[in-house]
């Protein structure tokens, strides 16, 4: 089952870089707004805080989609499964809904960590598996490396970056994309076109950007600690951008702005 494109989970709340009381308050506010998909990672150092906050919401487990990601330092036989078990303990869960490889391994051989990922699936530690920050060739290699479906490749995706190659690879491989840095860490707000388009729909610039991502067939991850912004980021299902406005926004992808540039972390691949 492809959980990433169920309507309930198309809009996820991303927890990075929040911790402690700020994270708890944000998750409670997000749950109140209607978010049921929550995204964390071993690398974020906030799985325990996320688990406590989710338990505090009182939401039924069956209503939640919880994603976490394995740190590349744990891509070894000795560390992979113990790290996932530690994540589950921190999250206060018997299994997560989606477990991702957070970054491709150094050297680019994706098969070994993917086999470990499938091992976690086979042991019932996760309901679904996927990847993050994979290039086109890595998506192809990943599809060939495991028997289980990969339900997403979570990548930087916003209107200031052309990701047509990855979208084509998603169609080719059957591995859908989901977004992080969906508003380019605020960079989109420097471009008046998004607010201008938004006025025609009585929507904000951020809502226009997030709606464009959804209409591209990409699930959305957003983070805010502001309750008004949390609600606005969630309330993007009651309008549809016209083909003309979609094309106007598409033209902005040639801006070529990337939040996560080569060398940002040791595992950054050569982007397509």
Describe the structure.
The chain is α/β, with parallel strands linked by helices and 272 residues long. The chain has a single domain (3-255), classed as TIM Barrel, CATH 3.20.20. The chain contains 10 helices and 8 strands. The protein has an 8-stranded parallel β-sheet with strand order 7-6-5-4-3-2-1-8. The mean pLDDT is 96.
Write the layout of secondary structure elements.
Elements: E1 11-14, H1 20-33, E2 37-39, H2 47-57, E3 65-70, H3 80-91, E4 98-101, H4 111-122, E5 129-132, H5 136-145, E6 150-156, H6 164-173, E7 177-180, H7 193-199, H8 205-215, E8 220-222, H9 227-234, H10 243-250
Which terms summarize this structure?
TIM Barrel; 8 strands; 38% helix; 13% strand
CATH topology: TIM Barrel
CATH class: Alpha Beta
Mean pLDDT: 96
Number of structural domains: 1
Provide a brief overview of the structure.
This protein is α/β, with parallel strands linked by helices. The chain has helices at residues 20-33, 47-57, 80-91, 111-122, 136-145, 164-173, 193-199, 205-215, 227-234, 243-250, and strands spanning 11-14, 37-39, 65-70, 98-101, 129-132, 150-156, 177-180, 220-222.
């Amino acid at each position: 089952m492809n959980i990433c494109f169920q309507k309930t989970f198309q809009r996820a709340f991303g927890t990075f870089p929040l911790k402690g009381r700020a994270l708890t308050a944000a998750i409670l506010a997000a749950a109140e707004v209607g978010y049921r998909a929550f995204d964390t990672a071993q690398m974020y150092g906030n799985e325990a805080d996320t688990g406590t906050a989710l338990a505090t919401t009182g939401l039924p487990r069956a209503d939640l989609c919880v994603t976490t990601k394995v740190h590349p330092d744990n891509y070894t036989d000795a560390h992979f499964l113990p790290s996932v078990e530690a994540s589950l303990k921190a999250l206060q869960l018997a299994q997560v809904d989606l477990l991702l490889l957070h970054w491709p391994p150094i050297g680019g051989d994706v098969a070994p960590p993917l086999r470990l990922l499938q091992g976690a699936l086979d042991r019932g530690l996760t309901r679904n598996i996927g990847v993050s920050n994979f290039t086109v060739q890595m998506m192809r290699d990943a599809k060939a490396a495991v028997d289980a479906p990969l339900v997403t490749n979570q990548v930087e995706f916003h209107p200031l970056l052309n990701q047509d190659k990855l979208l084509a690879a998603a169609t080719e491989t059957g591995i859908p994309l989901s977004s992080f840095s969906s508003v380019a860490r605020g960079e989109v707000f420097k471009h008046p076109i998004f607010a201008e388009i938004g006025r025609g729909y009585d929507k904000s610039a951020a809502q226009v950007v997030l709606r464009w991502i959804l209409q591209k067939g990409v699930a959305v991850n957003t983070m805010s600690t502001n309750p008004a912004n949390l609600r606005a980021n969630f309330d993007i299902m009651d309008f549809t951008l016209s083909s003309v406005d979609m094309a106007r926004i598409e033209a902005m992808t040639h801006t070529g702005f990337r939040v996560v540039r080569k060398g940002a972390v040791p595992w950054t691949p050569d982007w397509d």
